[in-house]
Design brief:
There is one protein chain. With about 290 residues, this protein is mostly helical. Helices cover about 70% and strands about 0% of the residues. The protein has one domain: Orthogonal Bundle (Farnesyl Diphosphate Synthase), CATH 1.10.600.10. It is built from 15 helices and two strands. Helix 14 runs antiparallel to helix 15. Geranylgeranyl diphosphate binds next to helix 4, helix 8, helix 9 and helix 10.
Length: about 290
């Protein structure tokens, strides 16, 4: 994990516009949002799925960077007063607190197209048609049928009681879509998977995406602000429906364990090549931050 995290720091630094060039303040805000923090779960998934498909790591690092730029932009916008209104992210002031709201808005606005720009500037597939499909996968995962749509459902759910299937639908879009895209795009950099194997990988990604969110809800209740590097206890304070508010802590933990088992089952036919994907499912469920 450390090797991929360090590699991503270098890759992202290289792909971001230099902070000394005009407009410097916007570029500094983009660096602030992307570099120097974060677990890099999505890049880790891309690299692990890339291993499964014998993908060239030099390709995987590009798709991983594109996904991480979308993720970073979503966190910047999510933290703004018009959405979640938070002041702490990755143990530091949020982007709009460190800079200002307009700059944070623009940093997110600029990171989003940069993700697609780098996918047009680097070869990540064997033919242009396959590469175009990969751009489409990231676009759908980020848009109104993916992460942004999930965020809209989230904002509309505050103060409401959701059923478990409704909550699941929200998270499949808000958090799950980008996690799934990370795994799929990592594998698409290679050419080792047939349609059935892709189906299993997608099932794995859907399962770990949900597990990620269940654990996020549990940690929001159980962990401290210092450990998380973001404000703990916000879900309850903001009356957000979560796995913990619907199931309670114990059943939410049980659900996370069941999803971990499902993720492992989805990989059962892959053998040693899926070792890192298995380890990541374990990390996502057992993490403490
Ligand atoms: C603004 C369009 C738009 C979308 C925002 C992902 C998201 C949608 C908001 C983040 C809110 C949130 C706390 C969601 C819970 C799960 C989640 C995505 C947590 C943050 O991701 P991590 O834990 O963050 O991977 P790091 O800092 O490790 O990169």
């Amino acid at each position: 994990m450390g090797a991929v995290q360090a590699r991503m720091e270098t890759v992202l630094q290289r792909l971001l516009p230099r902070s000394e060039i005009v407009p410097e303040r916007l570029h500094r805000a983009m660096h602030y949002a992307v570099l120097g923090g974060g677990k890099r779960v999505r890049p880790l998934l891309a690299f692990a799925a890339g291993e499964l498909a014998d993908a060239d790591p030099a390709r995987v690092e590009i798709v991983a960077a594109a996904v991480e730029m979308i993720h970073a932009y979503s966190l910047v916008h999510d933290d703004m007063p018009c959405m979640d209104n938070d002041v702490l992210r990755r143990g530091r002031p949020t982007c709009h607190v460190e800079f200002d709201q307009a700059t944070a808005l623009l940093a997110g606005d600029a990171l989003q197209p940069l993700a697609f720009q780098i996918l047009t500037e680097h070869v990540v597939a064997d033919d242009p048609g396959a590469q175009l499909e990969m751009l489409g996968i990231l676009a759908v995962a980020s848009g109104s049928r993916g992460m942004a749509g999930g965020q809209a459902i989230d904002l509309a759910s505050v103060g409401k009681t959701l059923t478990l299937p409704e909550l699941e639908l929200m998270h499949i879009h808000k958090t799950g879509a980008l996690i799934r895209a990370a795994a799929v795009l990592g594998a698409r950099c290679g050419r080792g998977l047939d349609a059935r194997q892709f189906g299993r990988l997608e099932h794995y990604a859907k399962t770990v995406g949900l597990a990620f969110q269940v654990v996020d809800d549990v940690l929001d209740c159980e962990a401290s602000t210092a450990t998380l590097g973001k404000t703990a206890g916000k879900d309850a304070a903001q009356e957000k429906p979560t796995y913990v508010s619907i199931l309670g802590l114990t059943r939410a933990r049980v659900l996370a364990g069941e999803l971990r088992a499902q993720a492992h089952a989805a990989l059962s036919t892959f053998g040693a090549k899926a070792a890192r994907l298995r380890e990541l499912a374990d990390f996502i469920v057992l993490r403490k931050f």
